[in-house]
Design goal:
Helix content: 40-55%
Pfam families: Methyltransf_11
Number of domains: 1
Protein name: Methyltransferase domain-containing protein
CATH class: Alpha Beta
CATH topology: Rossmann fold
GO molecular function: S-adenosylmethionine-dependent methyltransferase activity
Keywords: Methyltransferase, Transferase
Organism: Actinoplanes philippinensis
Structural class: alpha/beta
Number of strands: 7
Distance between the termini: 28 Å
Number of helices: 11
Length: 265
């Protein structure tokens, strides 16, 4: 990732209040990933794109020795405030990790590495730092699920991505993961799961929460801030999206893909 792209990504995730999103909406994903990856005492674990530690913290609480890495130091600083024993926080680029080859027993990412724009580079780093026979575990939003559809809705209003970048929700497509990891992994398991979100009383409340708190949504609105008609159009599209996903009781089910594999070799 170029320095300019890194700087923009750091600023995007530092904007708003992602720690609130992590604690109020997506907290259950971390423990689910830790369980699926079989993390336990004595393991050396790396969490890539750890944010405030949704997966790193429960991993450390199993007795594992965990390194939480993220490109955005503001998120690491929040997580570090309530850090359990055995957890280290490190600023790192998912596409160029500052760790030795085969350094970890388990490498995980909970809706983190999927936002690194250059997928092949990021996947290669996950494989490189995992020891042969070790586990790679991922929880990623699917293209078909609510968050994947939210990104599709926002795309026409967003600034053009860097050349060669790929959309984040592709990491929730098993075929895309197969193309990224190839024969570098064995024993692949994939499972589609849903996260029940009942935080919002109305579809408009969802939209306004994401406009205020979620970095990617904030960035898109900033891109169209000087065009009131486009702002109004995106406002309406995000409300319509939430309404389509309402389960009938004010809640939504957000689909994600749980992926685990063994590092070959």
């Amino acid at each position: 990732m170029t320095t300019t792209v890194k700087t923009k990504h750091r600023a995007m995730w530092a904007s708003g209040d992602y720690p609130a999103v992590a604690s109020e909406l997506v907290a259950p994903l971390g423990p689910a990933l830790v369980e699926a990856a079989g993390i336990g005492p004595g393991q050396k674990v790396l969490d890539v794109g750890a944010g405030t530690g949704n997966a790193a913290v429960p991993a450390a609480r199993t007795g594992a020795t965990v390194t939480a890495s993220d490109l955005t130091p503001e998120l690491l600083a929040v997580g570090e405030k309530n850090s359990p024993v055995g957890l280290t926080w490190t600023e790192a680029d998912a596409e160029d990790l500052p760790f030795e080859t085969a350094a970890f027993d388990t490498v995980i990412s909970c809706i983190g590495v999927m936002f690194a724009p250059f997928h092949t580079a990021a996947a290669g780093e996950l494989v490189r730092v995992c020891r042969p026979g070790g586990t790679i575990g991922l929880a990623n939003w699917t293209p078909e699920g609510f968050i994947g559809q939210m990104f599709a809705t926002m795309k026409p209003y967003a600034a053009p991505p860097p050349p060669g970048a790929q959309p984040p929700p592709l990491w929730g497509d098993p075929a895309h993961l197969a193309s990224l990891f190839g024969d570098h992994v064995t024993g692949v398991t994939v499972e589609r799961r849903s996260l029940r979100v009942d935080h919002f009383r109305t579809a408009a409340a969802f939209r306004d929460y994401f406009k205020s708190n979620y970095g990617p949504t904030i960035a898109v609105y900033r891109n169209i801030a000087d065009d009131p008609a486009r702002v109004a159009a995106l406002d309406a599209e995000l409300v319509a999206l939430a309404e389509r996903h309402d389960t009938g009781d004010g809640a939504m089910d957000w689909e994600y893909l749980l992926y685990t594999a063994r590092r070959a070799g």
